[in-house]
Design goal:
Blueprint: E1 12-16, H1 29-41, E2 46-49, H2 61-75, E3 81-84, H3 90-102, E4 107-110, H4 119-133, E5 139-143, H5 145-148, H6 154-163, E6 167-172, H7 178-190, E7 197-200, H8 207-212, E8 217-218, H9 225-236, H10 240-257, H11 263-273, H12 291-310
Helix pairs in contact: 1-2, 3-4, 4-6, 9-10, 10-12
Protein name: Dihydrodipicolinate synthase family protein
Keywords: Lyase, Plasmid
Family: Belongs to the DapA family.
């Protein structure tokens, strides 16, 4: 079933879905189903699958296609799905993008190839991808220099927006990057430029500030997606103070989960404790929690649960 494609007006929470594995490191398709159901039950607006948090670089091509097919069929058009297609080979990006769209995806997310050093190189990379994919496949630019090592300037982002109408979304994940978000919005307004959707990442760590600077929602994988959903909905209703109060209740756990190097293991362990997946296995090479890490996470979860109960939440 084909859902509506992502567009410049897309807003809300597009959860970055984890990829569940068994304790031996094989794909766990039953947990893929239960995790998909979990995210839907928490009210997410859409999904982003096969992203960096989804451990896409560790999947074989066959596994990639298996996960994509499983999730799209499970969702069955109920919400839009963006598929991460980043790869060193443009031909792989093209093939996976067209396969995803044929199977009902709402758009694709593309991070820049490694080792792009100048604005011209970044522009030419995305221009090539946009021409390969054509005008009918909506593209989300993934700006995540902490992982890609590629800096995308405001100038090159705006030039890409001007030149390629199929670029409809920016996943804003520079760090620190809130000033960049403001500059994209301010310079677009000043030049009467097409306004695109901006969804923010980095675990949602700066969500209130980013929403106030013009973000349209979140594209991240915090293990309590209901907080992201509720906070974004409150901002959308001009109830920013309530949104920030709610966000602050979850902030200690969100900040803890955001740790570089360990965050994915913490997130998967939390999803396991919430009953969404059967195993917290992170495919190697990847982080492994020790006994102290596990106890620390448990204490933070207990504190958060207590605070939410005390406030009737």
């Amino acid at each position: 079933m084909q859902t509506e494609k992502i567009s410049e007006t897309t807003k809300g929470v597009y959860i970055i879905a984890a990829t569940p594995f068994t304790d031996s490191g094989e794909l766990d398709l039953e947990s893929t189903d239960s995790l998909t159901d979990f995210y839907l039950e928490k009210g997410v607006t859409g999904f982003t699958i096969l992203g960096m948090m989804g451990e896409a670089p560790k999947l074989t091509e066959e596994e990639t296609l298996t996960v994509m097919d499983r999730v799209l069929k499970r969702i069955d058009g109920r919400v839009p799905v963006v598929v991460g297609v980043s790869h060193a080979s443009n031909r792989h990006v093209e093939r996976l993008s067209k396969t995803a769209m044929d199977q009902g995806a709402a758009g694709v997310m593309v991070a820049p190839a490694a080792n792009l050093k100048t604005d011209e190189q970044v522009y030419n990379y995305y221009a090539t991808v946009a021409r390969l994919l054509g005008p009918d496949i909506p593209i989300c630019l993934q700006d995540f220099p902490q992982v890609t090592g590629v800096h995308m300037s405001v100038a090159v982002i705006l030039k890409l927006i001007d030149d390629f109408p199929q670029i409809v979304m920016l996943k804003h994940e520079d760090f620190p990057g809130m000033r960049k978000l403001s500059e994209v919005r301010e310079q677009s307004t000043a030049a009467a430029r097409r306004r695109i959707s901006i969804l923010v990442g980095n675990g949602g760590l700066f969500l209130p500030q980013e929403m106030l600077r013009g973000a349209d929602g979140a594209m991240t994988g915090f293990a309590y997606p209901e907080m992201l959903v509720q906070s974004c909905a409150l901002f959308d209703q001009d109830r920013g103070e309530e949104a920030e109060d709610l966000f602050n209740l979850y902030l200690p756990l969100l900040r803890h989960e955001f740790q570089y190097g360990l965050g994915l293991a913490l997130r998967k362990e939390t999803l396991k404790r919430r009953g969404a997946i059967r195993s917290a296995y992170v495919r190697r090479p990847g982080p492994v929690l020790n006994a102290t890490d596990m106890a620390e996470l448990g204490r933070l979860i207990e504190r958060q649960d207590r605070l939410l109960r005390e406030r009737g939440l």
